[in-house]
Amino acid sequence: MKKNWIIATRGSKLARWQADCVRKVLLEHFPDLSIRLKIVKTAGDKLRSNKLWEMGGKGVFTKEIEEALRIREADLAVHSLKDLPTDLDEVFTIGAIPFRESANDVLISKDHVHFENLPPDSVIGTSSFRRQAQILKMRPDLKVQEIRGNVSTRIKKVLEGVFDAAVVAKAGMVRLGFEEWITEEFDFDQMLPAVGQGALAVEIRSDDEEVQELLQPLQNEDLFFTTSAERAFLKAMGGGCRLPLAGYAEIQGDEIFLQGLVASVDGSQMILDQMTGLKSDFEMIGKNLAKEMLNKGAKEILQAL
Predict the structure, then answer these.
(1) Which of 217, 236, 248, 281 could make an S-S bridge to 29, C-beta 3.0–4.6 Å?
(2) Homologous superfamily, domain 220-305
């Protein structure tokens, strides 16, 4: 095995934390190696004033990183799994999904006012149609506006009163040590997460057997099964960041329990369903749940969007 390795990552504090976490675990298993981070600026990082859905959604945080892999400026890349498109170029593959923090969403609000106590017409910041739909389903009297920026920027915008509150992923708050700013955590009955939320993905070149060997200690079989079922569901629904879709799977004994959601942006229409099956059938579980939901009216909701 070669001695020097390069991990490509975005430059945000959270992205660097995630990549460094993978680096440290690899060094625990292979202490004689040299592993360094390569910071890559993506379109999503450069065009902060643009709406994510206008930029094409998924891929805006990964394309330039994949190019670094393609031209062999990096050996592996660490992403938030939810940023990674379900249709990867055949040149690339997911080498490992080593960790998953809580997939829940959380509320950040000024003076720690709970969601149910926010005054009517309060402005909630989120960059996700999925969150917007579920917020408005619970509280149609609230206003939702797009919020961009890293986690600390979003917290600052709430504290300064630009927004009355914001909804973000719990995983980023925990990883950066910002738990004190969490007002409350939504359970999955209130807000189903994005597919892959909270999970890290290590992307590699498909033909690189040496890096596959390097990643063996990071393989988490249960996470592979659950996140693959979620991604199969998302792919079969034809969705990404531009659509209000949610999905979360967990292991129950020898089975996978998968929940899926599709909604109109204003939350007035929503279909929530679930499916259980053997872990080995993870891809079929995702596809079948999507098929069932499309037949129950999800197709019409998506067509309207």
Answers:
(1) 217
(2) Porphobilinogen deaminase, C-terminal domain (3.30.160.40)
Domain borders along the chain are 1-99+199-219, 105-185, 220-305
**Best CA proximity match to 79, nearest among 203, 171, 232, 173:** 203
This model's pTM is above 0.70: yes
Residue 228, φ and ψ in degrees, nearest 5: -70, -35
Question: Over the stretch 251-300, which tens digit does the pLDDT of each residue have?
Answer: 999 999 999 999 999 999 999 999 999 999 999 999 999 999 999 999 99
Token pair for 269: 């229409």
Q: Is 1-99+199-219's fold the same as 105-185's?
A: yes
Between CA 172 and CA 14 the distance in angstroms is 7
- Residue the block writes with tokens 């720690």: 112
Report whether 167 contacts 184 (CB < 8 A).
Answer: no
CA atoms within 13 A on the CB side of 82: 22
CATH class of 105-185: alpha beta
Burial 262-281 (b: 16+ CB within 10 A, else e): bbbbebebbbeeebebebee
Residues taking part in catalysis: 83
Contact 166, 108 (CB under 8 A): yes
- CA atoms of 143 and 104, how far apart (whole Å): 21
